């Protein structure tokens, strides 16, 4: 038996506030050079893409590469060909968790790129990207459906309920049959109302999160509001610097759990909404891969902003090199189309290859509505390069 128990002193740990402060004044001596290089590189790439014949193919390809780079920055490796096949629904193996996350980044990039320039940073866009708009939309749909029910149906249901209680003492056989049908209709109507109320109550409740995976005390709405306030304070700054601050603030505040990649997509959307990149969505993940690991997250805010600006410049320069290489490859392959009949599928195959890093026979067959054997014959005629080198499946691409 324990005679006495010593009192346990409980130490209260105060939760640190996740605030972010824009450097005031800004360290222009450290930021002037990287800012000028980033602004110039972004302008050159956007101007090149504005008049490029392969603009759509460049954009589609960079969605895949940037999605893989986002997982690479988190220490996860996703093969580019696996992501392409998973997006096409032609996986050769069961998709991994990392591949599913890369597909999520890919879909978010496409959604931002296809929408209006200012959509991603609007309240509706942020709610959609956070996965909150679907719940609200279902709730509104349920309420609208309940409001749109005509009053005549409610009167008929009430009359059916009254009949089902046996208020008619004397009735003919036909009347009894009508009463039976009325009782059934009333029961069905009552069940529909009960189910509608239950579904509405379930829709209003957000899905519960696993406390082992998510911090239940994480106030996402407050953090998002704080991040939006930072974005509003960057309206008078150059677009590239505003994007760098947006990404740095997202990494510091962490509005959403387990989604650090969304901040970089929103920073790229900020460049697009400010008119700096009118023809494309910048690839910040791909640019950060070119920055050495020890320089990506320095302790001082000036160093972090400079690293973000260098990443923007590196992404734009890499985009220019890829564009010129793909344009040259398209020009060389287009020479093989000379003299072909008008119904040839080779031009469509060339356009399809430009939009995907790798293509398989099944993908080509589904896109061009031909057989896999015919797809392989077209690949041989066009002279595409074998991209995977695997024996289990074959895929082709251009440089």
Please state roughly what percent of the residues sit in beta strands, choosing from under 5%, 5-15%, 15-25%, 25-35%, 35-45% or over 45%.
under 5%
Low-confidence stretches: 1-17, 134-173
The arrangement of helices and strands along the chain is HHHHHHHHHHHHHHHEHHEE
Strand neighbour order, sheet with most strands = 1-3-2
Radius of gyration: 29 Å
Structural class: mainly alpha
Count all strands and give the number.
Answer: 3
Distance between the termini: 78 Å
> How is the biggest beta sheet arranged?
3 strands, antiparallel
Commentary on this structure:
The protein has 399 residues and is mainly alpha-helical. Helix content is 63%, strand content 2%. The protein has a 3-stranded antiparallel sheet with strand order 1-3-2. α6 (133-147) runs antiparallel to α8 (173-204).
């Amino acid at each position: 038996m324990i005679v006495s128990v010593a009192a346990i002193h409980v130490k209260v740990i105060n939760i640190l506030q996740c605030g972010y402060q824009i450097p005031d004044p800004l360290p222009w001596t450290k930021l002037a050079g990287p800012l000028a290089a980033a602004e110039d590189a972004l302008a050159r790439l956007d101007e090149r893409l504005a008049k490029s014949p392969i603009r759509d193919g460049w954009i589609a390809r960079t969605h895949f590469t940037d999605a893989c780079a986002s997982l690479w920055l988190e220490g996860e490796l996703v093969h580019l060909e696996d992501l392409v096949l998973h997006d096409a629904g032609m996986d050769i193996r069961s998709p991994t968790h990392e591949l599913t996350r890369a597909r999520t980044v890919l879909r978010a990039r496409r959604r931002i790129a296809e929408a209006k320039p200012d959509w991603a940073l609007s309240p509706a866009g942020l709610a959609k990207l956070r996965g909150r708009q679907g719940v609200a939309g279902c709730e509104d749909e349920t309420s609208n459906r309940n409001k749109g029910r005509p009053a005549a149906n409610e009167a008929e249901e009430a009359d059916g309920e009254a009949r089902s209680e046996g208020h008619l003492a004397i009735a003919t056989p036909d009347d009894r049959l009508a009463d039976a049908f009325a009782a059934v209709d009333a029961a069905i109507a009552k069940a529909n109302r009960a189910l509608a109320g239950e579904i509405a109550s379930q829709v209003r409740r957000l899905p519960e999160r696993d406390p082992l995976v998510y911090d239940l005390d994480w106030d996402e709405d407050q953090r998002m509001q704080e991040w939006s306030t930072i974005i509003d304070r960057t309206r008078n700054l150059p677009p590239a610097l505003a994007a760098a601050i947006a990404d740095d603030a997202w990494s510091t505040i962490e509005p959403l759990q387990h989604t650090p990649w969304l901040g970089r997509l929103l920073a790229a959307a900020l460049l697009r909404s400010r008119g700096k990149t009118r023809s494309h969505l910048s690839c910040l993940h791909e640019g950060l891969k070119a920055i050495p690991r020890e320089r990506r997250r320095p302790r001082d805010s000036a160093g972090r902003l400079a690293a973000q600006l260098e990443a923007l410049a590196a992404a734009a320069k890499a985009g220019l090199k890829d564009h010129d290489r793909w344009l040259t490859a398209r020009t060389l392959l287009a020479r093989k189309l000379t003299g072909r009949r008008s119904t040839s599928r080779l031009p469509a195959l060339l356009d399809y290859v430009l939009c995907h890093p790798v293509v398989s026979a099944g993908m080509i067959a589904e896109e061009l509505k031909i057989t896999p054997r015919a797809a392989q014959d077209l690949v041989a005629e066009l002279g595409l390069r074998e991209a995977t080198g695997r024996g289990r499946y074959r895929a082709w691409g251009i440089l």
